Amino acid sequence: MRPSHTTLVTGGAGFIGSHTCVELLNHGCELVVVDDYSNSARQVLERVRAITGRTIVADYEVDIRDRHALSAVFERHGIDAVIHFAARKAVGASMRMPVEYYDTNVGGTTALLSVMREQGVKDLVFSSSCSIYGEAGQGGGPLDEHTPVRPTNPYAASKAICERILADVCRLCPEFRVLSLRYFNPVGAHPSGLLGEVPSGVPDNLMPYVSQVAVGRRTHVNVFGDDYPTADGTAVRDYLHVMDVAEAHRIALEHLADTEGFRAYNIGTGKGSSVLQVIKAFGEACERQLPYRIVARRPGDVAELVADVTAVQREWGWRPTQDLPAMCRDAWKFQQLNPFGYRTREPKEMEFQ
Ligand code: NAD
Ligand code: WQD
Known about the structure:
Number of strands: 14
GO molecular function, one term: UDP-glucose 4-epimerase activity
Largest sheet: 7 strands, parallel
Number of domains: 1
Cofactor: NAD(+)
Family: Belongs to the NAD(P)-dependent epimerase/dehydratase family.
EC number: 5.1.3.2
Shape: globular
Helix content: 25-40%
Bound molecules: nicotinamide-adenine-dinucleotide, UDP-4-deoxy-4-formamido-beta-L-arabinopyranose
Structural class: alpha/beta
Radius of gyration: 19 Å
Order of helices and strands: EHEHEHEHHEHEEHEEEHEEHEEHH
Subunit structure: Homodimer.
CATH architecture: 3-Layer(aba) Sandwich
């Protein structure tokens, strides 16, 4: 990656996008950001600037499906490559609003591809998800990239469909180069406490929920099942620090030049932690025992999802450096400094439970 390389980051104000912007700016990359702020706040990019002391070339409030607006962004800036984060990401919401999920995630990706094609930009890093493995993950043991893709909900299916489209485009238009990163469970926050994950409403995901219990916004963690065939009976996932995920994107950009066509890589640590281990580790970070209750399993959950990261380690030499205590420490710092996310006071929909 040349220092003057200009990367378009879609969804750059979101959780993973904002941390990736920090990583890229710290490595001399020029950035243009588009985001419709449907799941993020305008203050985020100000904080990215504060952390890095660098300026984003330009940021635009644009819906990724708006080809006209997107073309104008490409025409105004010499874009060399794109990192495409912009998407809807909640599994539960995707079951209630499948059309909206396919429209944003698949329609957004095809709109972006058609503009890239029209503008002669061929290099893309795509945000995929371990959820595409779906039922294939039931078997236990680390999942490698050859695991069959069997999504079980519209969100996961939208990512699987995008991968299929991207693979076809690369096969039929050989000048395209696409790296699809299948993240497992990104958590944590920037160590400054200025950037982190801000769920809207009651958090679906474990770490943000635990974090809100720690800060006193929720009374206890509901542990979804303790009768799984795992060491302590609670489900195991491959949590990884969002700064490690951000670094993987920088390295992916560097590897686009030696990529042929479409490639997908798992982005995880290769190490699983149970729900109870996460609650305990967070308790150590915030120096208090966090209350929890065992409740029924969440429909659709599997016992264990852990990445086989042999490919990315062997081919890129990328290894995550941060452990579960570091993920909890940084998530806790962000939660303490920003108890209501990027807002200054409690929004109505986030009442105390
Ligand atoms: P996020 O919601 O924090 O970030 C997504 C960003 O995209 C937000 O800023 C949102 O406002 C923006 N956006 C949404 N729809 C848009 C549209 N139509 N036009 C323009 N911008 C739009 O999510 P995240 O956790 O940072 O996830 C980033 C990407 O990684 C997503 O594609 C997600 O599916 C994928 N992913 C996330 C996880 C995870 O656990 N966070 C795991 C695997 C994959
Ligand atoms: C982790 C574990 C729950 C909340 C999701 C998406 C996946 C990807 C990552 C986007 C599970 C348990 C949770 C709670 C609990 N995202 N849990 N109490 O389900 O592994 O993956 O995020 O691509 O697509 O599906 O993550 O954080 O929701 O759950 O006991 O209040 O914690 O049952 O075992 P998941 P999660």
